[in-house]
Amino acid sequence: MNEYKISSLAKMAGLSVRTLQYYDRIGLLKPSKKTDAGYRVYTEKELLKLQQILFYRELDFPLGSIKLLINKRDFDMVKALLKHRQMLEERNIRTAGLINTIDKTVRKLKEVKTVLKDEELYEGFSKKEIESIKKEVKEKYDPKVVKESYNSVRHMTKEGFARVKEEGEQVSRDFATLMGKDPASDEVQRIVARHYAHINNYYKPTNEMYRGLGKLYVDDDRFRAHYDKYKKDLAFFVHKAIDAFCDKLDKK
Amino acid sequence: MNEYKISSLAKMAGLSVRTLQYYDRIGLLKPSKKTDAGYRVYTEKELLKLQQILFYRELDFPLGSIKLLINKRDFDMVKALLKHRQMLEERNIRTAGLINTIDKTVRKLKEVKTVLKDEELYEGFSKKEIESIKKEVKEKYDPKVVKESYNSVRHMTKEGFARVKEEGEQVSRDFATLMGKDPASDEVQRIVARHYAHINNYYKPTNEMYRGLGKLYVDDDRFRAHYDKYKKDLAFFVHKAIDAFCDKLDKK
DNA sequence: TATAAACTATGACGTAACGTCATAGTCAAC
DNA sequence: GTTGACTATGACGTTACGTCATAGTTTATA
């Protein structure tokens, strides 16, 4: 019977020497024998077994399972295959979902492909204000968070931008008219819900994060200025309203 | 701004403490500061950044890529997403292929599993003939061996059997063209190996079982007829070839 | 036959993204 | 002042190998 040294078998099977040594070590494929010098010697028998191994490996079976599958003669192959199939299917479903999420995200980003110039983005602000905002945004806040909304805002069409901006302004005005009411009241909470949905155009915050965002409206000068522009202390009111909103979410 | 200790942030984000410590270590998410005692202190800023991280993580981005994505200001998000999408799609296609392979394999195995009754296996033979064949096979050859291959053959459906025949036909033709050569020669042995691999689709015979199957090809009229249909005495040739194959396996 | 080239074995370490365990220091409460 | 909860860190395990270094073996060649 022909005998093969490790690199021959490796070449035949398309594996590396180190891989075969590894398979030996974990007991997946032992050589037929070893020479006095400790060299591994394989025969056709091992080649055939290796083919079986590679079949399962191709199916993404973990080596530990393969070891059981090919060594136990009474192992229920069909059951193992079906169980594995189940797992592959779940993996596929999940991956399909991820692709979908990417598509949605990309659509959102692309829909707004036309790049707005800074002047358009910050229309209403003076040049100096623009610079200071940009600088502040860059230095003070989390780069990515700000960048994402910054970019998504920057890449909007004028129409898209106008729409979002209008939406945001309406929400702000609504908050302004309701100031003084109980932040936890239904009418205020309805506006918060709209705000929350608005925010979700840009990213999907957890409850805690949304709460944090509300706090940021007060702590951050630029945000506070934005709201307080509508009405004095509106930022604080919005913060409280968001807090109440999150309280309710948490309680559920 | 509110300050959170590591377990608070972990709970909020649904991660483990160890994971956050890990993210700190690899520079993915550094705490806002550290206390004198070395305790990590996080704020809402980190919460927001973490949310971004989790968004990409959900999409199976490796953490290293996420680090670049959220830290490099000029990183092209759309490009990165589309590239990732490409990868996910390839993964999905491959997984779908694996599922398909499993389905085909399981179909085969299930056909094999259904037990054929003797009458079906030997349809066309009389009861007496059946008994005589069984008796002969049992007595003439190593009882255990023959019984093994016998039984494994018995467990096929008609359809399964037809499929085996169909798929085995190519192998048969190859044997036919090589008849006259030394059954132990490399070229013949290669075909035997293919036959062996083919058989292995259905069950995993021991060497002895495989040898018994070879004998069965000669001793059983139906099998013999099958091979001799291709060429006179082909069954005997195949038997010899399988014998030589098993000799080599045994010799080790 | 001596030597160089090619091959082999083995241990150690690295990978990704954490989990687990052990050890030790820290903080708040009773 | 002690207990209990919390934190930090290092070490090791996980999967399926790859890479590198070191050392011994076989083979080819001069």
Shape category of chain A: rod-shaped
| Tally of individual helices of chain A | 13
The percent range for helix content of chain A is: over 70%
Largest sheet of chain A: 3 strands, antiparallel
CATH-wise, what's the superfamily of the largest domain in chain A?
Antibiotic binding domain of TipA-like multidrug resistance regulators
Number of strands of chain A: 3
Proportion of strand residues of chain A: under 5%
Structural class of chain A: mainly alpha
Oligomer: homodimer
Gist of the model:
Chain A is mainly alpha-helical and 252 residues long. Chain A is 71% helix and 3% strand.
Description:
The structure is a homodimer of 252-residue chains. Chain A has 13 helices and three strands; from the N terminus they run βααββααααααααααα. Chain A is an all-alpha fold and 252 residues long. Chain A folds into two domains: 4-71, Orthogonal Bundle (Multidrug-efflux Transporter Regulator, Chain: A, Domain 2); 118-251, Globin-like (Orthogonal Bundle). In chain A, strand 2 (33-34) and strand 3 (40-42) form a beta hairpin. Chain A has a three-stranded antiparallel β-sheet. The longest helix of chain A is centred in the middle third of the chain and has 35 residues, at 77-111. The interface between A and B is large, with 56 and 52 residues. Chain A binds a DNA duplex (30 and 30 nucleotides) through residues 5-7, 16-19, 21-22, 26, 35, 37-40, 62-64.
